[in-house]
Structures are given as C-alpha cells and as structure tokens.
Predict the structure.
Amino acid sequence: MSCPGRYIKIEFDSTDASTAAAVVLYDDQQNVVTLGSDEMLRIDSLNISVAADITVEVFADADGDGAVDDGERLAEVGQGTHLLEFDKEGLACPTGVTPSVHASGAGGIVLIGTARLFKNNSPATRPTWREDTHQS
C-alpha cells in the first residue's frame, strides 16, 4: 500500500564548505534519493549547527555554478545552533534542484532537515505529492 507524500531527510556534515556542496537526501528507508527533473522539495525544517564564526548559506543552486545568486538563498545563519521551521506549505526549492550549502570559511557544519518530495506534472499545475513506491 502506498501512502500519500514522501518523507525526505536532509543531511549535510562538513568541516569546510567554503566550496559549495549539495546536501544528501534520504527516504524513510535510508536510501539516497536523487531528484528527477520533474520533482521538487518543500522543506519543512532545518536544524543547522555552525561551530565557527562563519556565515553559512543554504541555497538552491539552480544554475549549478556553486555561487549563491540572486533569488537562490533559502537560509543564512551564523555561529551557533539554529532551528528553522517553515509554514505548512514548506520552503519550496525549484523543480529538479537539490539544495546546497556554502560557508564563508572553514568550520564544522552539521545540517539535518525534513522535507516532502513532490512530483511537478507541469509548470502550470500545483505540485502533487509524489507517491511512495515502497510496499508495506
């Protein structure tokens, strides 16, 4: 039996994200998930711990250049532990784009988050829940 929606766990752990790197996405079975070109994430929450006095940006690198361009920033935090929760619609990422993390310098960063994966049938329609393909 399939259930509506698909829970996604977001993880990132690095001691130096001064070069942007994508987060890792996992399903509820701990399998790595790669977004299809017609799929999008809606982020529910991010818990970000930053050990050094640096700025950390979570962004949707839509053009794949590794730089945080105008309109791509999803979150920005400094040193400390930050729990970011988004409204019931979630923080939407562009279709087919896995979020990335970039820091202003070296330092320990741990990010754990939750999201839902949607299948976007066409740009003109509201995304629908992606059906879970696991049998129960």
